Automatic annotation (TrEMBL):
Alphabetical keyword list: ATP-binding, Kinase, Nucleotide-binding, Serine/threonine-protein kinase, Transferase
Family affiliation: Belongs to the protein kinase superfamily.
High-level lineage: Eukaryota, Metazoa, Cnidaria, Anthozoa, Hexacorallia
Name by which UniProt lists this protein: Protein kinase domain-containing protein
One GO cellular component term: nucleus
CDD domains, per database record: STKc_CAMK
Length: 300
């Protein structure tokens, strides 16, 4: 059976690193989905990544991971029919809010950690955890935490370095043996960003950025971190550990006092307005960079 026999494409959503994404509807049930079209006609490597994503997604069933509904193959393309998530990505959702606190950041990170715990149990490393791959199931609201879904398993590795430089773990840069700890490192970078609106490691020159990551050269400078709780800083310290053997695991992180739900932590509900301002600026630069890289890729 062909894709066109079951679904109809209705709208274009966007173009990612490995393919175009569109909105589609099931012709029989009228249920709405997203379809990711991956063209692998020009590269055997792209074909392997596409097949890997289908294989990995087919193994997964978790509320914090995007659901794979169907897969179709043609001689030149693979089409993944996925759960439709209209809320945009994590940072897009956060910056549209007028209220955002540590408690809100915690609600986001807790969902990511639950997804990572599940992947660990399945023997899968995501390897490209970043805000673009954390999608929201609905439009964001100041009154309820977003429902986050981890997506894009194109370079995931099932156990028997590619990725985005800003979120790379030291061992990925050094091309050493990868473990589940690489995803915890990326989660730590995302948490840092959610709390203050700028990343722990930053340099316009990639080689200096990577060196900073290798040295775990980050701080909690005043005044940006003055109102962030000590438990939040403690969790970041445990996530951004250079030696992956000493890095906190997803299971351990979910038991950490900042994640496990204590409302007694000072400042947990404080509205972090300055964080939203900085994160909005960071998000705009991220989007611009994505557009530029997309144009470059299309010219190749």
């Amino acid at each position: 059976m062909k894709f066109e026999d079951v679904y109809e494409i209705t709208d274009f959503i966007g173009k990612g690193a490995f393919g175009q994404v569109s909105k589609c509807v099931n012709l029989q049930t009228r249920e709405v989905f997203a379809v990711k079209e991956i063209d692998f006609s020009g590269s055997e490597e792209d074909k392997k990544k596409a097949q890997n994503e289908a294989k990995i997604c087919g193994l997964l069933d978790h509320p914090s991971i995007v659901h794979l509904e169907d897969v179709f193959f043609t001689p030149r393309r693979m089409l993944l029919v996925l759960e439709y998530l209209p809320g945009g990505d994590l940072f897009d959702g956060v910056v549209t809010r007028t209220q955002f606190s540590e408690k809100d950041a915690c609600a986001c990170v807790r969902q990511v950690l639950k997804a990572l715990r599940y992947l660990t149990r399945k023997g899968i490393i995501h390897r490209d955890l970043k805000p673009e791959n954390l999608l929201l199931s609905e439009r964001p609201s100041d009154h309820r935490p977003p429902i986050i879904k981890l997506t894009d398993f194109g370079i995931a590795k099932q156990l028997k370095g590619n990725g985005s430089p800003l979120y790379l773990a030291p061992e990925t840069i050094l091309e050493e043996g990868l473990t589940y700890a690489v995803d915890i490192w990326a989660c730590g970078v995302i948490l840092y960003l959610l709390l203050v609106g700028y990343p722990p490691f930053w340099n316009e020159q990639t080689e200096f950025l990577l060196l900073s990551i290798l040295q775990s050269n980050y701080t909690f400078p005043s005044p940006y971190w003055d109102t962030v709780s000590e438990p939040a800083k403690d969790l970041i310290r445990k996530m951004l550990v250079v030696d992956p053997r000493d890095r906190i695991t997803a299971v351990e992180a979910l038991k950490h006092e900042w994640v496990s739900g204590s409302d007694d932590i000072p400042g947990l509900r404080l509205n972090r307005q300055s964080t939203l301002v900085r994160l909005t600026a960071f998000n705009a630069r991220r989007k611009l960079r994505g557009v530029v890289l997309g144009l470059i890729a299309r010219k190749r």
